[in-house]
Automatic annotation (TrEMBL):
CDD domains: SPFH_flotillin (cd03399). One of its GO terms (cellular component) is plasma membrane raft. SUPFAM superfamilies: Band 7/SPFH domain. The lineage of its organism: Eukaryota, Viridiplantae, Streptophyta, Embryophyta, Tracheophyta. It is found in: Cell membrane; Membrane, Caveola. Belongs to the band 7/mec-2 family. Flotillin subfamily. PANTHER family: FLOTILLIN-LIKE PROTEIN 1-RELATED (PTHR13806:SF31), FLOTILLIN-RELATED (PTHR13806). Residues 5-184 form the Band domain. It comes from Ricinus communis. This is Flotillin-like.
Length: 481
């Protein structure tokens, strides 16, 4: 019989001629073979998984998994056909299987995490659950097409997430208050800065305005003085012209009078005419002199005042500029000097420290090298002497000039004393062997008594001191000689 499966179905054929099972979309079903059909469309499974965190806090994880056979993998389809296809995919058996896997993996994962980690890393927690569940479903040939894990929910009687949400909400509210306060603070600071800048700019503009106004006033006064001077000059010129006109008029009158009386008084008026001419010249010269005097008086006074004011203003401005420049230059030089002193001090200290460190290092290296060389030298000598420490010591003392130094010290000690050296012994020779003194304590006492006379004699010769009378009396050898 020829069987054909629908688009979302597969044929599962077993029996004669088939070693295991055969999957096909369409096939002939021969006698002795069995054929069944299973649907591969995914199914939604809704669960509310109850789990417990590492702190033993219970919670509920609502989830909806869309699960179905893996249609793009033949091995997964074979697993599904063998293990799941005999049961209806909506059956209680399949649902319990899927639910058991999801709940088991969720509980294992939740038990290894704290509630804080689960709450803050919800996305990572869901992804971890998805991966672990998929790993378990692979052995049944199932694939998770979609997993919608909802928000974590508190178990009745345990309001952890509610309190945690309230905590987050309060933290956000507090942070918002802090941000608002900070924004207000920045706004007030910015407002004060703007007001300060406004006042500074206003003061600057006022100062510039006063300077410009003063300049304008000076220019106005200058122009006023100039105009007054020109007016005065013009008035003087007009007066001179009037005087000249009057002189001309007088001259003409005199001429007319002269012409009228020329016939009569030509001879007598010749002197008068000459006087009139001279008087006219005098008047003209007086007028010119007056004009020049006025010019010199007013122009010189105005020029002097103007130049004086200008020089005073320029001097004040120059003085203030130089004072400001001097103060600025002094501050700059002080700052540069302080910086240079600080740099020099730092560099000097650093160089001294580096020099001391380098000297100490080299001194330590020299001491180490000297100690190593002396150790090698002493080991070589000791080996050459066969390990005889006494011989090594004598050699070092001889080589180091120890005995010569001892002799020098002794010679320096007795230099200038001119001692008289006496050599004596206690007389312990073979002649005493016949005496009746034994080798015991009496022999030692006898030796001491024999030693005293030469000792006292030597002390007398070297120091001039005689022993006390109760001890002994020395014979004067020089008297017998």
């Amino acid at each position: 019989m020829y069987r054909v499966a629908s688009p979302s179905e597969f044929l599962v054929i077993t029996g004669v001629g088939i070693s295991d099972i055969k999957l096909a979309k369409k096939a002939w079903v021969l006698p002795g073979q069995s054929c069944s059909v299973f649907d591969v469309s995914p199914v939604n499974y809704t669960f509310e998984v109850q789990a417990m965190s590492a702190e033993k806090l219970p919670f509920v994880l609502p989830a909806v998994f869309t699960i179905g056979p893996r249609v793009d993998d033949d091995q997964s389809l074979l697993k599904y056909a063998k293990l799941i296809s005999p049961h209806d995919k909506l059956s209680h058996h399949v649902k319990e299987l899927v639910q058991g896997i999801i709940e088991g993996e969720t509980r294992v994962l939740a038990a290894s995490m704290t509630m804080e980690e689960i709450f803050k890393g919800t996305k990572e927690f869901k992804q971890e659950v998805f991966e672990k569940v998929q790993l378990e479903l692979n052995q049944f040939g199932l694939l998770i097409y979609n997993a919608n894990v909802k928000q974590l929910v508190d178990v009745p009687g345990h309001e952890y997430f509610s309190y945690l949400g309230q905590k987050t909400q309060m933290e956000a509210a507090n942070q918002a208050r802090v941000d608002v306060a900070e924004a207000k603070m920045k706004g007030e600071i910015g407002s004060k800065e703007r007001e300060g800048q406004t006042l500074q700019n206003a003061a600057k503009i006022d100062a510039e305005t006063k300077i410009i106004a003063t300049q304008r006033q000076g220019e106005g006064k200058k122009e006023e003085i100039k105009v007054k001077t020109e007016v005065k000059i013009y008035e003087n010129q007009r007066e001179a012209e009037v005087a000249e006109v009057n002189a001309e008029l007088a001259k003409k009158k005199a001429g007319w009078a002269k012409e009228a009386q020329v016939a009569e008084v030509e001879a007598s008026k010749a002197v008068t005419l000459r006087d009139a001419e001279l008087q006219r010249e005098v008047e003209r010269m007086n007028a010119l002199t007056r004009i020049e005097k006025l010019k010199a008086e007013f122009l010189s006074k105005a020029s002097v005042e103007y130049e004086t004011k200008v020089q005073e203003a320029n001097w004040e401005l120059y003085k203030k500029q130089k004072e400001a420049e001097a103060i600025l230059y002094e501050k700059e030089k002080e700052a540069e000097a302080q910086k240079a002193i600080a740099d020099a001090t730092y560099y000097a200290r650093q160089q001294v420290a580096d020099g001391e460190l380098y000297a100490k290092q080299k001194e330590a290296e020299g001491l180490v090298a000297l100690a190593q060389a002396q150790g090698t030298y002493l080991r070589t000598l000791l080996d050459a002497l066969g390990g005889n420490y006494a011989a090594l010591r004598d050699f070092l003392m001889i080589n180091g000039g120890m005995f010569q130094e001892i002799a020098k010290v002794n010679a320096e000690a007795v230099r200038g004393l001119q001692p008289k050296i006496s050599i004596w012994s206690n007389g312990a020779d073979n002649s005493n062997s016949n005496n009746n003194i034994s080798d015991g304590g009496l022999k030692e006492v006898a030796g001491v008594y024999k030693m005293l006379p030469p000792l006292l004699k030597t002390v007398q010769e070297q120091t001039g001191m005689l022993p006390p009378a109760w001890m002994a009396t020395l014979t004067d050898s020089s008297a017998h000689s």
